[in-house]
Amino acid sequence: MKEHNTIYIYPTDTVWGIGGSIYSESAFLQVMQIKKVQFPRPVSVLVSSLETLAQFVSLDDLPFSTEVLQKVFASECSLGVPLELLKQSVPTWIYQGSDSVLFRCLAYPWILQIVHDLGGAPIVTTSLNLTSDPPISDWEGAERFWQTYAADAKFIHKRECLQALPTFSPSGQASTIIFLKKAPAGCSGKQPCLQIVREGRFAAGIAELLLA
Q: What rounded mean pLDDT belongs to the chain?
């Protein structure tokens, strides 16, 4: 796939994000430099549909249905999938030696447009902030960051979002992060073994969905 090196700044359901094509190491390194990250760390893969996710993950091998998965992603959640469940590899710089890849799924119109601009590539995504600061969740803060630290990036403006979704606004809360894990003793059958590493505002409901 053609490499696209453009950096994008965009709102998500939780906070603002920054990223580019998952196939561009240059874009990844630019994002790390903008955020002033001294040592690269794992980032997430943002897809715009479960159909795209299915290009990378064997959904039939997951211990829950696609309907449940759709509800999980709609609840401000990032899902860590073990490397052995990937049917298409992702670049190693995305997971930085860990044993899982974090996925998010959002179908906002501006996310669809970014994916289109990237030639259909998913987005390597992380929060918009300097590494020493909390993630940015407000429109004004995102625009200031763009102008100050990443003026060459493509910025998704408030008017673009509100024209498409008039009531849209990031929640300002961190997403829930859940990792699927290999089943240890006592975890059997199709019941998933989960590790919640960060609890967002819907964490309890997400865990209930996944364990139902």
A: 92
